[in-house]
Design brief:
The structure holds two protein chains of two kinds. Chain A is mainly alpha-helical. Chain A has a two-stranded antiparallel sheet with strand order 1-2. Chain A contains 13 helices and two strands. Chain B has 13 helices and no strands. Classes of the chains: A mainly alpha, B mainly alpha. Chains A and B meet through helix 1, helix 2, helix 4, helix 5 and helix 6 of A and helix 1, helix 4, helix 5, helix 6 and helix 7 of B.
């Protein structure tokens, strides 16, 4: 038995409670800036908030916010666009990122340089990328239309045409985030056990069979992680679409985050915005919980 | 051989836009509109972005630098302490799982969902459009990543080192400060560089929680792209300038960043 002595000195007390005070700042911060706002959000979602100067006044109007939800003209477009955006962008990024990682993994020289260059798009401000592509998509002088003109095709209104705007945003997201998938998959490819692949080779497997039955299964954990990360991040997309199209023309490239921002800060509907936020959070966390259960079943 | 061709093609696709924008930022408006490839480079756009009265870029750089530096420092301190507490001490399962689960959930949801209540709270506290509000929120959104990364780096240390220090008479706090912290320097670099860049790059929060006075670099860049839509060279120049800090930091901390970005994913 070890007798627990009460510390007598300040230093002794600091040491005895080290475990607690080291975690405390983070807990306080999360309580103040995430837990409390989450409660606030729930209260806001059943209220209407009006301003008189800097003073805010709350009235309890749950029905009104619900009706705003039901009659929101661009909400369904935002949800559908977001799902299309996430699905299209993530699938293409996964395929390209994996392919590139496998290709670079086979290179003898230049791996390090390749990796360095591929980090750049990830770390550049998304706003700067939006701004860059807005110029490249420009109808009159943009790089894309200049390239089309070389092969004799007419100028395309990349951001101005309702049927194309969302896809133009998808292209930017693919450009921005394929390198991220590449980095994760490249680290995984470099960590592949060479003897297993060698053994498959000796046993006479074709390159395609090696990829399908040896390499891909070994890469599955990393693929899953990359897929999850990308899906979550793509769902949050805001900066680029705000800059490129602002959700337009009409609602043709409206995404959920952008819509939320608009409801909050352009339509000044803090109450309805809060209701939408709560629903978004619930939807994401439910999808995640379901996804985890499915993943567990698959693994068994 | 086809492999090489494809890799080179991928490189061109990644680097091309940067080069084109870099080129555009040195053009005059006339050269841009005519789509010229041969032109006399000029620094007019940079001068306009950095020095003209209508541009807030200079002030935004000052704001962004302060906010990103302060956020990074606070995130490193709070995040390292929290990670160490969870890694080193025998917390009941619900504490560890609860804390990490909360950070995970926070990382999943779009930040815009929290910006509404933040806006209200900071208005009530008189902190709307202040650097304090930006620092507090940037610390909050970067803390999850910092805790995970620091925990991952801590797990790579052999526990015997600290045990030996305690046997030699170090108190727990001394063992942490004198033995563990110095070994975590790569973790600090990775976490610090990533936090600084993410804080510098943040657009959604800064857009919602600031107006004129404390607009950050991304907010000003977006103004060039949306409000003064015809100033194409300035758009390009402001994008190039906004990208510089990330590029510089990246080349300094490259090795550690790669480790940071891929660490959680592969292990």
């Amino acid at each position: 038995m070890i007798a627990v002595r009460r510390p007598r000195t300040l230093a002794g007390w600091i040491n005895a409670t080290f475990r607690h005070w080291s975690l405390l700042p983070a807990v306080i911060l999360f309580a103040a800036l995430t837990a409390y706002p989450a409660v606030d959000l729930a209260r806001m979602s059943v209220s209407t908030i009006t301003w008189q100067g800097a003073q805010d006044f709350w009235t309890f109007t749950p029905r009104r916010n619900f009706e705003a939800l039901m009659s929101d003209p661009s909400l369904s477009a935002a949800v559908v666009n977001t799902l299309v955006f996430v699905a299209a962008a993530v699938v293409v990024e996964m395929v390209l990122g994996l392919a590139l990682a496998l290709l670079v993994g086979r290179m003898v020289r230049g791996k390090g340089a390749m990796r360095t260059i591929m980090i750049v798009p990830i770390l550049v401000p998304a706003v700067a990328i939006g701004s860059m592509f807005k110029l490249m998509y420009n109808y009159d002088f943009g790089l894309f239309n200049q390239a089309l003109a070389v092969v004799g095709l007419g100028p395309v209104s990349w951001l101005g045409s309702p049927s194309l705007a969302l896809w133009s945003v998808v292209i930017v997201d693919i450009w921005h985030w394929t390198p991220f998938v590449f980095l994760i998959m490249f680290a995984a490819v470099e960590g592949l056990p060479q003897d297993v692949i060698e053994a498959g080779h000796v046993d006479g497997a074709s390159p395609w069979q090696l990829l399908r039955y040896v390499t891909l299964p070994l890469l599955m954990p990393a693929l899953t992680v990359a897929f999850l990360f990308r899906s979550i991040l793509a769902f949050k997309a805001f900066d680029e679409v705000y800059l490129l199209t602002g959700g337009g023309p009409g609602t043709s490239s409206e995404l959920l985050s952008l819509h939320l921002y608009r409801v909050f800060f352009e339509q000044n509907q803090l109450g309805y915005g809060a209701l939408l936020s709560v629903l978004t959070m619930v939807a994401i966390l439910t999808a995640l919980a379901l996804g985890r259960r499915v993943a567990r079943k698959v693994r068994r | 051989m086809t492999g090489w061709v494809l890799v080179v093609l991928a490189l061109c696709v990644v680097v091309g836009p940067f080069l084109w924008i870099f080129m555009t930022s040195f053009k005059t408006q006339i050269d841009i509109l005519s789509g010229a490839w041969a032109f006399t480079p000029t620094l007019d756009a940079y001068a306009d972005v950095l020095l003209s009265k209508r541009s807030d870029f200079g002030h935004a750089v000052y704001t962004s630098a302060i906010v990103a530096t302060a956020s990074t420092a606070i995130v490193l301190v709070i995040g390292t302490l929290a990670a160490y507490s969870l890694y080193r001490f025998a917390w009941p399962r619900w504490v560890t799982a609860g804390f990490l689960g909360w950070t995970l959930a926070l990382h999943m949801i779009p930040v815009i969902t929290l910006v509404g209540p933040w806006y209200l709270i900071f208005k009530e506290l008189g902190l709307y459009d202040t650097r304090t509000a930006l620092v507090l929120t940037h610390v909050t959104i970067n803390l999850p990543m910092a805790v995970w990364l620091m925990m991952a780096f801590m797990r790579t240390l052999p526990p015997e080192i600290e045990e030996a220090a305690v046997v030699d008479g170090c108190s727990p706090v001394q063992a942490f400060l004198r033995v563990t912290l110095p070994l975590l320097v790569p973790g600090f670099i990775a976490t610090g560089v990533l936090t600084f860049i993410f804080s510098w790059n943040d657009f959604a929060i800064a857009l919602a929680l600031t107006s004129q006075q404390n607009a950050t670099v991304p907010v000003v860049v977006s103004k060039f792209a949306n409000d003064y839509e015809v100033l194409h060279a300035q758009m390009a120049a402001s994008s190039v300038l906004a990208t510089l800090p990330a590029l510089v930091l990246m080349f300094i901390g490259q090795r550690f960043i790669v480790q940071g970005l891929t660490m959680g994913a592969v292990k």
